[in-house]
Structures are given as structure tokens and as C-alpha cells.
Amino acid sequence: MHLEIRHARVVMTLAEAGSISKAAAKLSLPQPSLTAQLRRIEKAVGGDLFVRSAFGITPTPLGERLIPMLADLATRADAVVAEASSLASGILRFGNAEWTPVTLRRALQASLPSVEVQTVTLDPALSIEAVNRGELTAALISSPEAVDGIRPIDPTLAKEIIVREPIWLALPREHALARRTTVSRRHMAALSWVQHVQGHWFHPVEEHLFRKLDHPTPEVLHYAGGHAEAMSWVRDAGAAALATPTGSTSDVSLVAITEPLRSRLLLVWRPGSIHPNTLRQLIDALRRYYCDYARTIPRYWNWMTERPTDFPELANFLPRPGRWWPRDPTDAEPHTASS
Question: Any idea where the HTH lysR-type domain is (predicted)?
């Protein structure tokens, strides 16, 4: 057997994890498969790299010499792939969930003038698969926090949190609760709802909240396939819905929920597939765009600027303390659905 770059990555992951079981989880491999692969690698290098014990694995003297070299090999290989990918194709294929505003593509292209930006709208799970296959360079996906039933993200992919955004209540503009600053579970127990279909990434969020209501089986008027459809039922049928502020539409009202529900907007990519400079420009462009978009939603923008510690990833893009931003007392939010 000849050593390959993938073998170097396996050894590096084992060393970082400190146990075969933890490394297997990170690599999404069955533990017996990883153990067999390690044996083949050790046979190729002529000796054991790790000592196994009930407490995990530790490097042998041979491992102490070879593991740093193998880790360096994997890191250098990633850098080569990133450089070759950025120079050879000149194309950055970017995936986004629900729908992709024209202004988002324009913002990314303006921030990355040396590459051609191509965008595609995909379900988060399909986006992750496309990134894994190399069909997408990167994707922006939503990942709700502290909610059961959310599919874990492939641990071999690199990830960066763009922002943690709250999940709010969307209501018809004329609804009695629409003028409140916040609502609690007590207020929501008697509402009629539009819910996302099972299998949609947002469905577990709704189920999580419904289980906590005083009436855990609320009336559901309709099961929607996406955010835009759900917002149309809020507007036309008088239903209530959960939504991220940037996922709502301008013809509904948004009210913050005292229940601390949040969803992370994550950028995911294959390690080594994006040059570090391009990656930093992409992350900054996404955060800047998010803030620019949030400004079109007055109630949310005021919430963000009054609570900057809730948005640590946006620290460089939110106004400095003391800077004044106009409020809109009518909450006439001139925006459309985003991610």
C-alpha cells in the first residue's frame, strides 16, 4: 500500500481527536473501518503510530516523529488544491436555501471581482451534498440551534457561522398581537398556524415550539413547502407562522418571541477548496450583505442595533454604540423573503 493524502488526513484527525471512536465520528466512518484503515497505514510506515488504551490513543515514538509530517502534508495539499481551484476555474458556485435575491449575487460578485460568481437555490441538505461532490464551491445553509430532529452537518466539511438570527412570530398586520414588542408562549397557544411540511429544514423548529405550548396540538390550517408560501397564508388566511426576520415578507408583521429560538446561517465548503483570501472576502461579503438586508426591516434592524452582543459575528458591520438609526413606528418593513 502507498500512502496518499487521504491517509495523512486520517492520521491527523486521529491525533486531534485522541480516540478512534471520536475520529470515526468526525470522519463519518464506522469505527471498525477506521481501525482497519489505521492498521494498513501503520503497516505502510513500518510501525505503530498510536498506543491504544482504555483512555484513548496516544502517539508512539514513531508517531511523534511522523504525525506532524503527515499533518503538514495534508495542510500543504489543501493549500495546493485551493490555489489550483481558484486559478484554474475562476468560478465560485454558491448555493443558498429557499430563494436567492438578485442583490445577493451582485454583492458577492462586487466583493469577488477576480472570479465569476454563479448562484443556485437548493434545499440545505442538497446543498451540502453538492458541496461534498464539488458541484458547489460553498453554500449558505440554515441550522437551527438546540432543536431535536436537525440532521447533523457532515463533519468533514469546513464551517463558519455568518450570523445567529432569531426566530420570530409572523402575523397578519391587523392581528391584535402585531403591535406587541414581544410575545410569549401564553400568547401563541390559541393561534391558528401555517406550518412547513415534514422534511423541510424548518419543520423541526415548529415542532420544538409546539411541544412547549400550553396546547401542544395547535390548529394547523396548511402545510407549506417554503417560506414564501407560508407568508402568503399569514397574509391571506390570517394564520400565524414562525420565521426568521430575513425569511419573512413585507406584507406581514414580525414580533419577537420571548422563547429564545435561534438559527445559525452557516457557510460550508470543502477544506482546501477555496483560497484563504477568497474565503475571507466571501465571509465578509455575506455578513455585510446580511446587515444591509436587515436595514430594510426596521423592527429587526433596531433590535439588532440595540442588542449587538446577540450578534457577535456582525461586530464589524453593525453601527458603533451611540450612532442613531431612524425608527419606523409603523413597522412598514419594505423587504421580501430572504434565506
Answer: 3-60
The number of beta carbons lying within 10 Å of the beta carbon of residue 337 is: 20
Tally of CA atoms within 13 A in the half-sphere of 53 that contains its CB: 9
Cα(171)–Cα(254) distance, rounded to whole angstroms?
A: 6
Of the candidates 174, 178, 199, the residue with the CA atom closest to the CA atom of residue 187: 178
The model's pTM is 0.70
Burial class (CB in 10 A: 0-12, 13-18, 19+), 264: middle
If you ran DSSP here, which 8-state letter would residue 48 be given?
-
pLDDT tens digits, one per residue of 45-67: 999 999 999 889 999 999 999 99
Q: Would you state the torsion angle of the CA atoms of residues 207, 210, 211, 215, taken in this order, to the nearest 10 degrees?
A: -150
What single-letter amino acid sits at 39? R
User: Strands (DSSP E) along 81-227, which ranges?
Assistant: 91-96, 116-121, 138-144, 158-166, 168-171, 182-183, 192-196, 219-224
